[in-house]
Amino acid sequence: RSAGDVPSGPAASAAAATRAPAIISRAKWGADESLVKDPPIYDGTVRTLFIHHTDTTNTYTAAQAYAQVRSVYLFHTKSRGWNDIGYNFLVDRFGRVFEGRRGSITQAVRGAHTGGFNTEAIGISVLGTFSTVAPSSAALRGVVDVAAWKSAQYFVNPTGSVYVTSNGGASKFPAGKRVLLRTISGHRDV
User: Fold this and answer.
1) How many angstroms separate the Cα of 160 from the Cα of each of 20, 70, 184?
2) CA pair distance 118, 33, nearest whole angstrom
3) 3-state DSSP call for residue 141?
4) Contacts of 164 (CB under 8 A, 6+ apart)
5) Torsion region of 91: left, alpha or beta (phi above 0 gives left; psi -120 to 50 gives alpha)
6) Would you say the pTM of this structure is higher than 0.85?
7) Which of the 8 DSSP states describes residue 75?
8) What is the pLDDT along the chain (190 residues), one digit of tens a residue?
């Protein structure tokens, strides 16, 4: 956006005041960039954020978290056949934020995280499984930090709602169905 395109008032103030969390880059977590064959798809904006968990182990060390991210990346690209890791960001149990899908730090990159609802959405996933246990307070803080930053960047009201249209696929809503969602939702909501 040019300076003339930035809205004034509370939303612009929130965007300027909300800092990006420290992010562990793809290079730092060891992404094999040869696995990404096509350039990312960019959306013009972000309207929703979806929260996930990776369904992996909860008992990893800070050093092992990097391998956890690489394993999710390999699963998404090799087993699922996706062009890149599906999530835009991942958060470990220590609250550290990892760059997921290439370009997500600076752009509205379309992920592959929420079947039928990836357009104009960001996927944030916590490393681990939380069917019977809660994520750590540090992990929750990491999710809040990245969600607040991206919400402010794209002028998303984090407590609001928005109508979105399903693209079908792996969703409980058929293609073309208009659905009212919280702007920050769990992936199982759709």
Assistant:
1) 21, 33, 8
2) 22
3) helix
4) 47, 48, 117, 119, 120, 121, 178, 179, 181
5) beta
6) yes
7) I
8) 333 333 333 455 555 568 899 999 999 999 999 999 999 999 999 999 999 999 999 999 999 999 999 999 999 999 999 999 999 999 999 999 999 999 999 999 999 999 999 999 999 999 999 999 999 999 999 999 999 999 999 999 999 999 999 998 888 999 999 999 999 999 888 8
